Amino acid sequence: MSGPLGNGLYARYEELIQQAAYLVSYLVKEDCKVELFINRLNADNQIDHLRMSDGRKQLRLALVRLAWIHESDRFVAMKRFDQIIDRQKHPHAELIRIDASLLKQMSVG
Question: If phi over 0 gives left and psi between -120 and 50 gives alpha, with beta otherwise, what is residue 9?
Answer without folding.
Answer: beta
